[in-house]
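Z., the sequence and structure:
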Amino acid sequence: MNKAVYQSFEASSEPDKGPERLIMLRDQMRKSGVDAFLIPRADVHQGEYVAPADERLAWLTGFTGSAGFCAVTQDAAGVFVDGRYRVQVKEQTRTPFTPVDWPEVQLGDWLKDNLASGIVGFDPWLHSAREIKSLEQDLRGTNITVQAVDNLIDPIWRDRPAPPMGLARVFEDHLSGETHTAKRTRLAAELKSAGHAAAFISLPDSICWLLNIRGQDVAHNPVVHGFAVLHDDARVDLFMHAQKAQDIRAHLGNEVTLRDPDELFDYVSSFQGSMRLDAGTVPYAISHALSDNAILSTDPVSLPKACKNATELNSARESHLRDAAAMCRFLAWLDAEPHGTLTEIDAATRLEEIRRQDLLMDEISFDTISAAGPHAALPHYRVTTDSNRTLNAGEVYLVDSGAQYQDGTTDITRTLAIGDQSDAVKRAFTRVLKGMIAISRLRFPHGISGRDIDAFARAALWSAGQDYQHGTGHGVGHVLSVHEGPQNLSRRSTLPFEPGMILSNEPGFYREGHFGVRTENLLIVVPAPDQPDGNLTNLLEFETLTYVPIDRRMVLRDMLNSDEIEWLNSYHQTCRDKIHPRLTAAEQVWLLDATQPL
């Protein structure tokens, strides 16, 4: 079996070095005259995914999760994580770092408890304008102030990796469905109508979508780092290193001016006219430099990017069918292997090898979560050579994976029975399935957002006193980030769903130390037909993108109602119809068995 190309299984966390590094940081704090310092899991672009050079949080604390931050005083060091990482943070950090349950405990309250007075330092490039404004409000009336300072981690991170310098490439119009000239013109007209002279764009995937380019600056995400200013006449100033842009110069044309990133701060400071900023993603340094010219709003690219056009959606449908065939090949292989002979790394490696047989595959879309037994109870588990576990009989195996194809981005989770399973596992699995089906079957009026329907995914679990500590779904990009905003399916989301949005649908249940269950399909928001007896128009519903069998061996039929049974049987028949022709004869036999009606 060949080694996986795209995923490393080496342990990247160094928790035992954290205490020594914390001593060095506190020395830097004393020299800089600050009493506390904030270390986010972020880079200057404020995206979710960061390059190795920007993994400051992991370097300091040992915690490698994709979300979180650390607050350090001379006497305390709190590592703030949400429900997805409560177990992981305990395993990856050492005293004197203390895990903090966030958002239940807010940063402002923690600082009040751990700092009577003093200055909280922060790197103005690594925090958004909204973050700092919120913290200042929380600390109002105290003797604690917030102050921008130079980054205090970088001087002590002596072997810090170099910033990424991957080449940008053209994303062809036949895959994007719209030229970058048309995109720039369309969005510029909206800026002019609003009276904004320009918009500042910091998110790499927004810049890539706007200019029809892609890159390789972040693992598993085809994005290129840079900043952009879109003017109300459709011109763009693109701040990107020239060596990264050498293959896209002709594509960009005369209306896109390439500028050195070192010019950015002076450019913004001297800008004349109003500039629209996304308060949640723009670095504080930029909003502060613009001062009265800043219009705190939203990224003008994010919503158009989220609402895929017909070309993007048709490409997504095709790439998901090919990915489903790859998943079925993998599942057929997995079922044929004797129990107790495979490890988590074996399975992840084999799945990647199967996907790589598709000539249109460029990358995986994230590190595969290949989790057996109790590891499946960690929603964002990452297998390493140190943690690698055998897939043992009587345990579940959870595999959450995806790929970056030249025509689409995929993400799918299946939980599989390795041998006979307990009644508790089957009941949890079936409750999760009921939630996934409930979302898949929904029809709803325009104006409904994620917070309005999240409970449908949880109702069956709630009835049994169970729940999961992550959102039910996230947006997915088109040959871009597998996690894409602004849309999502969670109790926090107030953005109405729009046709063309792609979202995941992935309820779960996790019993720490024992097992975990998650079932995930991707969905497209599409118009729904008017109902003959209804009084609502402009209805929406979900079209399923993912067609891979759900493990019937863990479904308790008596827990499903007739509509749910009908949905599951229909779904499996569609899996058979769509994927059967794409498989070998032996794989077809497996598929026919896996899709038998309940």
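The mean pLDDT is 96. Residues 15-148 form a domain with the Creatine Amidinohydrolase; Chain A, domain 1 fold (CATH 3.40.350.10).

Let me know what you think.
H.
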